[in-house]
Write a structure and sequence with these properties.
single chain; four-stranded antiparallel beta sheet; 22 strands; mainly beta; about 250 residues
Length: about 250
């Protein structure tokens, strides 16, 4: 997707859910964040190219979640534009935007294990049970069989009947899919069974805490120890730890 920051917020009937800022941490402002996931005490972060496409800035990284320090990095040669990342049963999966492949990667060494043909644009990716869940910039989420990336089910994400398009980075948290929406500073909370948006996490106030100009909100990772959620964005110089307040996330 392009790097242009744009667009009015998506009008929606689902309520904004309350949250609290727990901590602020450093983040590499050169990282055009496409995906983020916590794995065994570190963050795996996938970065894309920004502009122009194919400039060789895509990577997969291991990042210290407290200091933001890049512990290890594997750069992905141009013209590939990397996208979302997740971990399923000890294997990291990294999508590419329009290159037609998804990478299977060792989450510790970052060594690429395989490139699997993938028949659509790749944007965000997460896990539910033994299936991968992916977005492609539309309002559709798809569940994939990891063996061959065959689609096993799909849902259209809707807020009061209206499709929510531009779904991007995904994270499964407590049975709810958190979905960044490209160009929006809100995260949609999506019920996986039917795609209904049960609430919005409005993070627009975080922009005032950034120390430098930045692109869109993108990057969601749950801390498995505290249950808090770490969020960041493309070329953001900060990561933020948040937690939803008890009234949040009620189903409609």
């Amino acid at each position: 997707m392009s790097a242009v920051l744009a667009a009015a917020p998506i009008a929606g009937a689902a309520p904004s859910v309350p949250w609290r800022l727990v901590d602020t941490r450093p983040h590499d402002p050169r990282a055009f964040t496409q995906g983020l996931v916590s794995y065994k005490g570190v963050l795996l972060e996938s970065t894309g190219d920004c502009c122009p496409a194919g400039s060789g800035k895509s990577s997969i990284r291991r990042v210290d979640p407290r200091t933001g320090r890049v512990l290890a990095i594997r750069r992905i040669p141009a013209p590939v534009w990397a996208e979302g990342v997740t971990v399923l049963r000890g294997t990291a999966w990294q999508l590419t935007w329009f290159d037609g492949v998804a990478y299977r990667v060792h989450p510790v060494t970052l060594r690429q294990r395989a490139a699997v043909r993938y028949g659509r644009e790749g944007w965000g990716i997460t896990v539910q049970g033994r299936r991968l869940v992916v977005s492609d910039g539309s309002a559709v989420l798809r569940w994939l069989q990891p063996r061959n990336l065959r689609v096993t089910r799909r849902v259209v994400v809707r807020d009061e009947g209206r499709p929510v398009r531009r779904l991007n980075e995904l994270e499964m948290i407590g049975g709810t899919i958190w979905a960044n929406v490209w160009t929006d500073d809100r995260i949609a909370l999506v019920r996986p069974s039917d795609g209904v948006v049960t609430g919005w996490v409005d993070l627009s106030s975080l922009r005032g805490r950034l120390g430098s100009p930045a692109d869109v909100l993108n990057g969601i990772a749950r801390d498995p120890v505290t249950g808090h959620v770490l969020v960041t964005g493309k070329n953001w110089d900060r990561m933020f730890v948040i937690r939803l307040l008890p009234s949040a996330g009620a189903s409609r």
